[in-house]
Amino acid sequence: xxxxxxxxxxxxQENRFTNGLFSILSLARAEHPKFVSGFFSDLLSIQxxxxxxxxxxxxxxxxxxxxxxxxxxxxxxxxxxxxxxxLEPLIDxxxxxxxxxxxxRMQSEPQRRLVLLTPDDGKSNYISQYLKFAHGExxxxxxxxxxxxxxxxxxxxxxxxLAGLIRQFLDTIRVVIFQQDIAGIIQTISLGxxxxxxxxxxxxxxxxxxxxxxxxxxxxxxxxxxxxxxxLYDPKxxxxxxxxxxxxxxxxxxxxxYPWSNIFTPETLKVLDAPISRDSIRLIxxxxxxxxxxxxxxxxxxxxxxxxxxxxxxxxLVATAEGATRDEALAKLRADLVAxxxxxxxxxxxxPTPISKEPVWPDDQFTRDWLEGIAADRAPDxxxxxxxxxxx
Length: 392
Hints:
Elements: E1 2-3, H1 13-31, H2 33-44, E2 54-57, E3 67-70, E4 74-80, H3 96-104, E5 111-118, H4 125-133, E6 138-142, H5 143-156, H6 161-180, E7 182-188, H7 202-207, E8 213-216, E9 229-234, E10 239-255, E11 258-264, E12 270-277, H8 278-281, E13 297-301, H9 302-305, E14 309-313, E15 319-323, H10 326-343, H11 365-377
Parallel strand pairs: 4-5, 5-6, 7-9
Antiparallel strand pairs: 1-2, 2-3, 3-4, 7-13, 8-11, 9-10, 10-11, 10-12, 14-15
Helix pairs in contact: 1-2, 1-6, 5-6
């Protein structure tokens, strides 16, 4: 391992993210020491009586932790992933987490932690199994929490070099981690006798908790115990009407066309009082053509689903604004529109629409042949005005 260096190049993507994060923390020590201590206290509840002085990151050595951060009384080891459900299983003591725990317990500092930095939901069953493996010694840290912490600092220190580096790192997190990771899946409901889902009945059945699972033609492994949402889109109502978390995905083969069963987490089942319309779905980047074509499901990325709010408006003043809250996004959009209107010269124009006295036909061979056939069968031409136009 070597001290974190922002200019060090790594071939693996997750190592580049590890180096980027801890290089920023290392650079911040001199001018913003509270930013470093706050990272550990606010995000991980790790309090040290001494400043964190050592930030070492992986340098091409397989089998080691991704980062090692220390103060005089604290040792924090990091295992970093940039994709969900990417941690090695616990079945072999030579796999990552058991191996890292063995290393951690050999350290001399009185306060020791292994931190799993991943895009996963910390409340999911998937992460819980790792936390239970060494209760109190392993902690989970979500990239969403890191993103929010870094963004707050960048917004408060807009003119500093460190804030500029952080903003670049935030852009990379959005593009790489949030866009590749999913927050849920929109599943189009197959209505009718074949699926057993009746348009007039299924919502009331959901409210009465008569549905405990949802069968699908394919496996949604990414939903299994991960706190991600299964969103049901009703093609008749043209809206998402139900959301639920999936506790487990099993191959039950209860029906040949729907072999996979998505077992609900009961308390998360919710029939939406205000269904999410297809038009609203199409405002989400990447889902502009939702509902067009044969695709029965779509994935929603963390960037869209879990990273704030987006407000937008269309012509004549096209604008979009994002914020951590709904009110913040609307306030930013309003300020942008006010600024534009203040310098805009808006003129209402009436454009006459010419109406041809003659029928306008497509200029193609099929239409020409069709018109010739009509002319041959009819006399006079129905478009010709009668020669005598006087009143009878």
